[in-house]
Amino acid sequence: MESKCIYDQSFDKVNFSEKPLIKGEYENCSFTNCDFSNADLSEVIFLESEFSDCNFSNAGLGKTSLLDVTFDNCKMLGLIFDACNEVGFAATFRN
Asked: Is 14 within the bounds of a domain?
């Protein structure tokens, strides 16, 4: 399966628990008021992206890449960051 590259996109109020996030690379994207609770984010690459007021509770992070991402006022219960790809891991957390 070919992975998708998504650049400079804004996602607002999307429920990724019901409609799974397409596996691929998300560069310079913004996610606002999105629900990732219990979503499978494994092997997804987030690069220079920002998450605001999102719910990540119990999301699967197996081999997920977080490269220069910001989480602002996000709910993040039950996340296992140890499962993320360690290479280049860089995340900022606010509130």
From this structure: no
